[in-house]
Amino acid sequence: MEKDLIEYIAKSLVDDPSAVSVTETEGERGPVLELRVAQGDIGKVIGKYGRIAKALRTVLSASASKDGRRYSLEILD
């Protein structure tokens, strides 16, 4: 569910929604969602001073805490 939520939000932010992909991996501190977007859209997902990235992480944290889980979000280029 969290994977779909991040993918939906990212697709609505970028110019090329077909290039958005979210994969779930296991990190040393728990599950990690890796967000990949087109090279030209990376700034739109990170935002000025990282505000959009922080908002994505906040939404992810709120969604995951309902189930008692903890996710990390990594934005990859």
From TrEMBL:
<keyword id="KW-0694">RNA-binding</keyword>
<comment type="function">
    <text>A probable RNA chaperone. Forms a complex with KhpB which binds to cellular RNA and controls its expression. Plays a role in peptidoglycan (PG) homeostasis and cell length regulation.</text>
</comment>
<dbReference type="GO" id="GO:0005737">
    <property type="term" value="C:cytoplasm"/>
</dbReference>
<dbReference type="GO" id="GO:0009252">
    <property type="term" value="P:peptidoglycan biosynthetic process"/>
</dbReference>
<comment type="similarity">
    <text>Belongs to the KhpA RNA-binding protein family.</text>
</comment>
<dbReference type="GO" id="GO:0071555">
    <property type="term" value="P:cell wall organization"/>
</dbReference>
<dbReference type="InterPro" id="IPR020627">
    <property type="entry name" value="KhpA"/>
</dbReference>
<keyword id="KW-0143">Chaperone</keyword>
<dbReference type="InterPro" id="IPR009019">
    <property type="entry name" value="KH_sf_prok-type"/>
</dbReference>
<comment type="subunit">
    <text>Forms a complex with KhpB.</text>
</comment>
<keyword id="KW-0963">Cytoplasm</keyword>
<dbReference type="GO" id="GO:0008360">
    <property type="term" value="P:regulation of cell shape"/>
</dbReference>
<keyword id="KW-0961">Cell wall biogenesis/degradation</keyword>
<dbReference type="GO" id="GO:0003723">
    <property type="term" value="F:RNA binding"/>
</dbReference>
<keyword id="KW-0133">Cell shape</keyword>
<protein>
    <recommendedName>
        <fullName>RNA-binding protein KhpA</fullName>
    </recommendedName>
</protein>
<dbReference type="Pfam" id="PF13083">
    <property type="entry name" value="KH_KhpA-B"/>
</dbReference>
